[in-house]
Amino acid sequence: MDDTLFHDIASLPLIDGDQILVSPSTFVTDALKLMIEYKVQHILVADESTFYGVFSLWSLAHHLTIASKVKIEGLLVEELISSIPLVNATDSLHSITRLLLEHEALLVQTRPGSRSVIKTSDVLLRYHTIAMPFIMLQEIELALRSIISARATEDLPRFISKALAYKYTGPEKDIPASLTELTFDDYRALIIQKENWHSFESVFGKNKDIVSSRLEQVRQIRNIVFHFRQKISRGEQITLESTRNWLQGKVQRAIAKE
């Protein structure tokens, strides 16, 4: 689904070495203005030949707790330089999780002489991008199971048989007896089957063709995601989001009509 073979630090979009740099002689007030402008919590401290460390909101907060009477005006960054762990761009994201939880930021050697800062939120956003299609598909599938369970109640085997008996005509092919044995397309077929539809119409509305079409779209996206064929498009992501939200309301309606 994602073009990235291994999810390492280099797969983060911000890792390009283009970070904000200040010299040790920079006033803290000027550094804070940069942090506000660029919405960052860490700034690299270096000059033309030497890297000194990091100035951060945390190093400032720590300084103020032990020197509460010191005014920020006139304070230089060199007095507040701190160090954070150094990792490599080839390190896997899962291998740095504990370090990020402890330090909230890490220093990355992107290439000789170039460094970047990565934050917990950077990795969280990456994991969110990777995982969200799977999470939404899980919610969609579990929502369909919930609706079917609510409307079929004790007649589930009969509902399954009516919709899927044609698929199990051989002597060694037993018709599934539970929802967990069904495929995603089986859910769609079960719901829109002519006789079964009467039990679902009050939940989904009058037009079963619309229901069938929406679930078919999800089935196709599901195959793309679970077989890692390609990265899903923005339109496909919107389809998953809208179907997930649509089914959330349908689940509430199905439960209310039990």
| Biggest sheet: strand arrangement | 1-2-3
- Global morphology: elongated
User: Nearest-angstrom radius of gyration?
Assistant: 27 Å
The CA-CA distance between the termini, in Å, is 39 Å
Q: Which runs of at least 5 residues are low in confidence (pLDDT < 50)?
A: none
Q: How is the biggest beta sheet arranged?
A: 3 strands, mixed
Mean residue pLDDT: 89
Question: What structural category do the secondary elements indicate?
Answer: mainly alpha
Tell me the number of structural domains.
Answer: 2
Counted by DSSP, the helix tally is 9
The H-and-E topology, N to C, reads as EHEEHEHEEHHHHHH
Hey, roughly how much beta strand do the residues contain? Answer: 5-15%
The percent range for helix content is 40-55%
Number of strands: 6
Would you summarize the structure shown here?
By secondary structure, the chain is mostly helical. It is 51% helix and 11% strand. Helix 6 runs antiparallel to helix 8 (208-226) and helix 8 crosses helix 9.
